[in-house]
Specification:
CATH architecture of the largest domain: Up-down Bundle
Oligomer: single chain
CATH topology of the largest domain: Na+/H+ antiporter like fold
CATH class of the largest domain: Mainly Alpha
Structural class: mainly alpha
Order of helices and strands: HHHHHHHHHHHHHHHHHHHHHH
Strand content: under 5%
Number of helices: 22
Number of strands: 0
Length: 515
């Protein structure tokens, strides 16, 4: 089977497994990993080796860029303390704890090798956890904290990992040099990300072509990641910061560019996430082939998995409630319920970045095969074990979504509609020749404001039902227009170009009815 055939097969598998996961209501990354594992037993499937550069330079930049783009900077700042404690403090703590356990139980690994393993398995991947949260509904702050953690923790972990690998190669380790390099890597990554984000913003102001604008968006993650890595700073942080900045660049885009760009990115991220988790599952034969599964290996692996899973609890609870003992912090940010803290502590699911870092170890690295095996078991135990039990834990603890989201949305819709009404009053004076159109628009916005108020006070489900009915009515009217356009085309009244323009306008109108 050629590489092209394998790639097409993976895409087909991703589509099928995604459909299955959504029908079952299961987390898609977990289904992808299990599906990849099952696929290794199918006849004719070649042995797959996931090249680390494919993850670091192929998959990782767009996933990080999208994470930055969809991150609310205001919510990130509001939760900066817990995010930093998790993304920096917890990663350092986990890496150290794993290093202590690995050094004690794995002969010949050495301290540098032990810390390399700690850096590999310390960063959680929020993709699997957040897909579960989106399906079940949890307080928005939990999602914000975990997403913020995932944006920064990879940078912290990979810096630890690279210092440890360099120490093994050089045979020496300087804490001072490592600390200075750590600060330089993080600060330099942020600076490069800001520079690339600024450049994207300026380019977006001067590009009107939809295809070119969309292509720039696809290239932007690599434009941030690769230069940062080439000068020795954090490409992870550079890509995340550029993604955050790109939200401002999208304000300069036309409606067409935003609609097309959103569609392209949705497909791109869907394929990337699916393929990368499926490839992770396909790695099993390669990972276990050269490992002797004796009692010492199993003992060390179980101990390291326990350190990763329960070390998060050891860190999360004290550093959630401890800072709030300071009166100023306690008054401004009261103690969260222990149930929510437990969910955060149980959400440390590892992902493909850990496996890619392990695969990137030099062939001569001490105990490389064992490190690969331990990393894979940690990923499997957390992603599948914790991931499958996370929904039951959320239900058992009674952790529910915030109740004021609907009110906030209704209030925002009223305010935006009122702003439009005020502008229409001004336009009626500025453009008296278009009063009929302005009156029609005024009626629509007045209807929107009145229904937003009604929705805010309606019984649960009533607003959604009415919205669905209104959407269906508008969709059927648009479909009637579409059928009429097709009829005109078949009768030769309009040509293909006119039909495409009408179809495009109707598609945009239908998108607006669903927005």
């Amino acid at each position: 089977m050629s590489q092209i055939q394998l790639a097409l097969l993976l895409i087909a598998i991703v589509i099928v497994l995604t459909a299955i996961s959504r029908r079952l209501g299961a987390s898609t990354p977990i289904v992808m990993v299990v599906g990849g594992l099952a696929l290794t037993f199918a006849p004719g499937i070649p042995q797959v080796t996931l090249a680390p550069e494919l993850v670091f330079f192929g998959f990782l930049p767009p996933l990080l860029f999208a994470g930055g783009y969809f991150t609310s900077l205001r919510e990130f700042k509001a939760n900066l303390r817990p995010i930093v404690l998790l993304a920096v403090g917890l990663v350092l703590f986990t890496a150290t704890l794993v290093a202590l356990v690995a050094h004690a139980l794995v002969p010949g690994l050495g301290w540098a090798g032990a810390f390399a393993l700690g850096g590999i398995v310390s960063p959680p991947d929020a993709v699997a956890a957040t897909t579960i949260f989106q399906r079940l509904g949890v307080p928005r702050r939990i999602v914000t904290i975990l997403e913020g953690e995932s944006l920064v923790n990879d940078a912290t972990a990979l810096v630890i990992y690279r210092f440890a690998v360099a120490a093994v190669a050089a045979g020496v380790f300087s804490l001072l040099d490592a600390s200075l390099a750590f600060v330089w890597a993080l600060a330099g990554g942020v600076f490069v990300g800001m520079a690339i984000g600024w450049l994207i913003d300026k380019v977006a102001e001067n590009v009107a072509d939809v295809a070119i604008f969309t292509a720039i968006g696809l290239v932007a993650p690599y434009a941030a990641y690769l230069p940062a890595e080439s000068i020795g700073v954090s490409g992870v942080l550079a890509t995340v910061v550029a993604g955050v900045w790109s939200r401002h660049a999208m304000r300069h885009a036309s409606s067409d560019a935003r609609v097309v760009g959103a569609g392209v990115w949705q497909i791109w991220l869907f394929l990337l996430n699916g393929i990368v988790f499926a490839l992770l599952g396909l790695q099993l034969p390669e990972v276990v082939r050269n490992v002797h599964l004796g009692g010492d290996t199993i003992t060390a692996t179980v101990a390291i998995v326990a350190a990763v899973v329960f070390g998060r609890f050891v860190w999360v609870f004290p550093f959630t409630y401890g800072p709030r003992l300071i009166p100023a912090i306690g008054r401004s940010d009261p103690n969260p319920p222990w149930q929510a803290v437990t969910v955060v502590a149980w959400s440390g699911l590892r992902g493909v970045v850990s496996l890619a870092a392990a695969l990137a170890l030099p062939e001569s690295f001490p105990q490389r095969d064992l490190i690969l095996f331990v990393t894979f078991v940690v990923i499997l135990a957390t992603l599948v074990g914790q991931g499958l039990t996370l929904p039951a834990m959320i239900r058992m603890l009674g952790v529910a979504a915030d109740g004021d989201v609907g009110h906030a949305e209704s209030h925002a819709r009223v305010l935006t509609a009122e702003a439009a009404l005020a502008r229409l009053d001004e336009l009626a004076t500025e453009r008296p020749g278009h009063v009929p159109l302005i009156d029609t628009l005024r009626s629509q916005y007045q209807h929107r404001t009145s229904h937003a108020d009604l929705h805010d006070n309606a019984e649960p489900g009533a607003a959604e039902t009415e919205l669905l009915e209104h959407t269906q009515i508008r969709r059927e009217a648009i479909e009637a227009e579409r059928r009429a356009a097709f009829d005109l085309h078949e009768r030769g009244v309009i040509d293909d170009e006119v039909l495409r323009r009408i179809e495009r306008d109707l598609d945009l109108e239908e998108l607006r009815t669903e927005g």
